[in-house]
Amino acid sequence: MSFSFSDMADGLRNGGSISAEDVLAVRRSVWADGSVSPAEAETIFELNSLAKERSRDWVDFFVEAITEFVVNQQEPRGYVDQAQADWLWPASTPTDGSIRSPSSSCSSKSWKSR
Question: Is the pTM of this model over 0.85?
Fold first, then answer.
């Protein structure tokens, strides 16, 4: 059976979780060509936001893939400039106003007060 990002997203919308097998399938799909495409980066954020629970395997993959895309594949390489930060901020801020890390969430109010 072949892997499908849309099938995985549908499963998460229906209350599913990201299993170790799912992480492996996503890894194989994303890293097949050795890089993370812009569409894959967007999809990875979508899957992360849909997941009710995030395993350590998923968090490790999420951080690895998004870091590779933003820091190592985009210009300027090696750091995050304002344009990249502007892309990351809405991608990591769900429509409910909370701010979510790959592994947990907190309200924007509590995050801003830190």
Answer: no
Backbone angles phi, psi at 100, to 5 degrees: -120, 135
pLDDT 10s digits, 84-105 = 988 888 766 555 555 455 555 3
Provide the CB-side half-sphere exposure for 51 (13 A, CA).
25
pLDDT at 23 over 90: yes
pLDDT of residue 10: 95
Q: Please provide the DSSP assignment of the chain as one string.
A: ----HHHHHHHHHTT----HHHHHHHHHHHHTTSS--HHHHHHHHHHHHH-SS--HHHHHHHHHHHHIIIIISSSSTTS--HHHHHHHHHHTS-TTSEEE-SS-EEEHHHHHT-
CA dihedral angle for residue 81, residue 40, residue 11, residue 99, rounded to 10 degrees: 0
